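hey so i finally got around to running the thing on that chain from the lab meeting. sorry it took forever, my laptop kept dying and i had to restart like 3 times. anyway pasting the input first so we r on the same page abt which one it is
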Amino acid sequence: MVKLSPEALEARREYRRQYEREYRRRWRQKPENKEKQKEYERRYWERKAKELTQEYVQTNETGASIRCGRLIP
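ok and heres what got predicted. didnt touch it at all, straight out
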């Protein structure tokens, strides 16, 4: 394999990032995928809320306080 300069590697990474960004944008614009995205986000936030609730309950049991989602002993 050819060894590329740091500048060439960065250019390749940037090209790949732009390609991925555009691909995801086009994917999200399709009507059938908009529903998938909304469902994914709904599940994600439900899971996050459940995790935070469980952390909060656990910290109250131990007597530690919680601030911004992080435990403070």
